[in-house]
Design goal:
The complex is a heterodimer.
Chain A (H helix, E strand, L loop, with lengths): L1 H51 L2 E4 L2 E5 L3 H8 L3 H19 L1 H12 L4 H13 L2 H11 L7 H8 L14 H25 L4 H9 L4 H29 L3 H6 L11 H10 L4 H31 L1
Antiparallel strand pairs in A: 1-2
Helix pairs in contact in A: 1-13, 2-13, 3-8, 3-10, 4-8, 5-8, 6-8, 8-10, 10-13, 12-13
Chain B lengths: L2 H19 L13 E5 L8 H17 L3 E5 L6 H9 L6 E5 H10 L6 H6 L2 H4 L2 H6 L9 E8 L1 E5 H6 L15 H15 L4 E2 L6 H12 L7 E4 L2 E4 L4 H15 L12 H9 L5 E4 L5 H4 L8 E5 L8 E11 L5 H13 L11 H13 L19 H13 L5 H7 L5 E3 L6 H17 L5 H15 L6
Parallel strand pairs in B: 1-2, 6-9, 11-12
Antiparallel strand pairs in B: 3-11, 4-11, 5-9, 5-10, 7-8
The chains are: A mainly alpha, B alpha/beta.
Amino acid sequence: MKLHNNQTAALSKRNKTIGTIIRDMGAWVLILPTLLILYFFVLRPIIVGAWYSLHEMQGFTIKEFVGLENYTRILADTQFPRVLWNTVQYVLWSFIIGFVPPIILAIMMNEMVHLKGWFKFSTYFPCIVPMVAATMLWFYMYLPNESGLLNTLLAHFGIEPFEWLQNDKFTIPLIMITCTWKGSGGSVIIYLASLQGVNQELYEATVIDGAGFLRRIRTIAIPHLSGIILLNAVRQIIGIFQIMAEPMTMTDGGPNGASMSIALWAYKTAFIDFNAATSLSIGVITFFLLVIFTVFYFAVQNKVQTD
Amino acid sequence: MSKKKILAVILSMITAAGMLGGCEQKQETAVDGQITIRVGGWPLETDEKAYAARMEIKEEFETTYPNIKIVPDEWGFDLDTFLPKAVSGQLPDIYITSFTEIKRIIQSGYACDISEYMEKYKYTEYLRDDIMDLISDENGSIYAVPKTSYAMGLMINMNLFTEAGLINEDGTPMIPDTWEDVAEFSKIIKEKTGKPGFGMSTMNNVGGWHFLNLAWGYGTNKEFVKQENGKWVADFATPECIEALQFVKDLRWVHGATPDNALLDFDEMYKLFATDQLAMIIASPPLNALFDQYGMTNTDAAAVKMPAGPAGRFAQIGGEIQVMKNGLTEEQIDACFKWLEFNGVTPEVSEDRKKNIDTEYRIQNEKGYVVGIRKHSMWKADNVPPVRQYEEECIEKYTNVNPELWKDYADFSKVTVVPEPPISCQQLYSLLDGCIQSVFADESADPKALLEEAANNYQVNYLDKEK
């Protein structure tokens, strides 16, 4: 009798499951392309890469399981501390140079009455310029001789030409200026969209109460944006930590490794040195560092959504 | 079954499909005795003359060998795309690259052992020993067919030399015989034209690669490494190499000889040279890219042998090679060699194939490349193959420049040609790139400290890990 009951329960459960599948079929079909893309371009490379990084490889063929040997090689590499510190510097400079301007621009545009459309376009325009074109544009502006645009400007004021990218103390900040110019438009749009969700009556009430521009910003705009600001901060850390194309096209990691980022180092290790296993190990180390930030990102996102 | 389980099942299925999708492609096999080979470096259709000539050779070849089909592939060797193509089995069956690339291709397992065929087609009989070393692994197996070879030299922009008054009465350029002469000439050029006299690329490993010529001239160990107790030890943080790097630094800061840009890549350097913005560069003459891509006229350039340093005159050897991808069948390898033979690349060229060599030189002439200089020979001096002799006839026939402007470079009797260092040379070049960038960018840079740091990095990160 008990057995019969169990069979009936199992049958009913299976029917329920089939019912669920049939009911949700549309959703599964819709989600399948995304799952496939996620699997082939994100999940599988991560899993296979992590597995390969535990092997000695010839080209991209695994030869022998070596455990963590590739990781110990990376950690013992004399370039690793410098490259990691460079990458941290990219993140720090991205905050110093690139974090506040989009907030200011968004607030300005939100307050504007005239020419708002033109400002929106001109702020977002660099985002649609191809990355290589944007970096080459800035590379030529930074040229250290008289033909560099910035040095031409300096010459007008009787100032000697500056070294720009070639001065290793300034290479990373100058690359970050390029990244800020190229990428801040997206952040501005996010902040502006958020600001435009503020109830206008709040603004009007503060104006009636005699609050000036700065006070409105401090008491309404900033508190309203605080969640998005935090979210963008985490996204910026994750994004800048993987910076590669900008230093690659502007300095190739130079002068003498001063702008070598961890992603560019991994690229060169794989494609110039043909050392795939070591490159994959660098990738896995970066992955784990970014997982920490991503977990934090989701926590922040949940908080923002809850608020 | 919960939704999570459904998701897990779907993901598992995708994983299985993905794993199958990742399986290595199998090499095309001959069907009914038909052999197909994919030949890389095929001219683009837009390059009408070269394309038409190559298609004509293809047609003739397929008529002569009806069982072999040639599939044109326009891919030319490029580091950014090489590995993905190699891994996915998409490399052409035979393609052209340079001597500098072959070691890493062999080590990665993507080149085919062609030792047997090199003997069969008599390359081993005629090729010089140093060239054989460059294309072989440590066990003596051969992995590439040399196409051309060169010794590096110094290329001269004739317009700037003329403007600076550095021209002899017979119209030939005055020759900077030593590196000190290069500095002196640069001062004159700067004074008379306002343009930098001497340029070195400093990026993408080219700076280090070119610096070897200077370092050897100052007496640095030719291999940059030595063996101690069976282990490789870096051997370039030496007084001789430091002196060479100091000279490079002085070129920038004392003589004002070099461009202000310390981050100069190959293309940028070519551009400066081709547009009369730079007077002298280390290069592998005749450097046809200058005339092909940057609009320079071939009569505006000249070449002289590599300047000498206190320890002598040394020039690095290089050139083009043809590599066959790993995994080809015996029939395909033989078909590739037949294709080379048909194009007149084999040492013993037959009478009826000579016309293909003739066509190659005619096209070079028509495209405005430099024809008229005897390149450094990859063949043994005491056993010159028929192909070299016929090439000389073609050069004579299609000369389009004043040979006097290239004569000094082509006299290899006064130059010691040296192959690149035996171990991790790309990594060495990369580290030396950094040293050159530093001395060009920073007036206070210390060549001794830079080379010591580079030697330590080379030792710890690469040499110590050699098995």
